[in-house]
Amino acid sequence: MEDAHLSLETLAKWLSGGLEQEEMLRLVIPHFLSRCSVCRERREEIARLQKEVGHWDEVVVVLEGREAPELWDRLAERPYAEQLRTVEEDEGLHAWGLCQLLLKKSREAVFSDPGKAVELANLALRIVRHLGTAYDPNWVMDLRARCFAYLGNARRVLGELRSADDAFVKAERCLALSGTGSIEVQAEILSLKSSLRRAQRRLGEALELIDYALVLYREAGELQGAGKCFLKKAKIVEETGDLAQAIDLLRNAAAEIDRSTERQLFTYARYNLLGCLVQANRIAEAEQLLPEVRDFLRDNSHPLDLIRLRWAEGLIHLGLSQLGPAEAAFREVQRDFLERRMGYDAALVSLDLALLYAQEGCVEDLKRLAAELMPIFESRDVHREAIIALLMFQRACEEEKLTVDLVRQFAEYLRRERRGNGM
To answer: Of 112, 123, 163, 208, most Cβ neighbours within 10 A?
Structure first.
């Protein structure tokens, strides 16, 4: 077809070197890409890298994206203090691609090793301060905003809520100085900030932030970001106590997520739904969903996810009065948490075990359980108020005064304190 080809005027301008860059991108490049499948695939790969590396310049994303893992190899095995010194002194490390890779690694480490996530975000922040005139200053300011937001998010998971708040103030200050108007960057920072507000128990603000982030992600056509926002909103609503709305949100989130391309996100939507159903005592629905979630997590999970799934399985057994399987599940999960020095979670599952014993009037089992709780007290992540509550629980067991209602009160107190302390 005649209109599928370049006009004589366009071709003449291009051959003489007089064609503007904008016209080249709009007319010439699409024409040639449409004729060659290999070039078209490579252009799609560059577009994917632009999104992954977070930069508009094709040369930056191809060259620096390829170099970033090699640059990280020069740092990875060094102690953190040496890493900080090296990124300050070695100009070869002052690269956009490395900074972006560090943020990606920080995001991946935030729940498995939040201390490491803080270090990685700090390294990225050191590098972004040295990005020179080869990069657009507005894009650099966006990247710096993201560095502060990732730092704040990792500090939130550590429970350092005040310093996390400071980091988000700096992130927003950088964003205000940027002239890009990037709605993807705004949405990401709003989404992370909503998690901080949730940890601070400022749930109304958390909901406003996540709703705004959801609007921006949809405007940008970022379906993965929108799906994550749905999951976060459900978590916030869950913590307001409205389990029915949280369940509805999670069902809707699963319906909106493309299961073929976002399998892990879909998995966590179903996983979180299972947890809400258990909390709402909708045991029959939870039991029906359990095999599906177990199959999903077998291929798309971290070890902790499987431990928490086993915990949910124990609660389902307890709800169905299957006491032997419930006790076995709780004991297994308790042991796994203690081995990982996750004192808070070990205490909570111990209280579920206590609830089982209290319902059955197993006084001697309660006393043994109370004695077993001592290693939990030594865990570094159980704060003073929680230790006092656990000591009160232990005394009630020893004095044979523990009731089902008391166990539930202790459990609710610990869950509330954990949320309030950003755990």
So the answer is: 123
